Amino acid sequence: MAPDWSAGPEDFQDRLAALRASDAMTRDVVTIPPDAPASEIARGLRARYIQRVFVAAGSQLLGIVTAFDLLRVLEDLKD
User: From CA 66, how far away is CA 53, in angstroms rounded?
Assistant: First the structure.
């Protein structure tokens, strides 16, 4: 269940309303090519302590791979 940020103190709400995506975003984006092996992706996630990487071909964003996506792939291999 997500937290109810609207129930917070009024000054918190004012500060939160003033923030934009650019204030919270990560600027060091990690990208991988679409043919990256799953084992390489898993090692990269673990080494960088991150939960997702963006799949890109050149400057075109193709998708996202998350740690949960890798778990799903491993689970599917078992079936």
Answer: 7
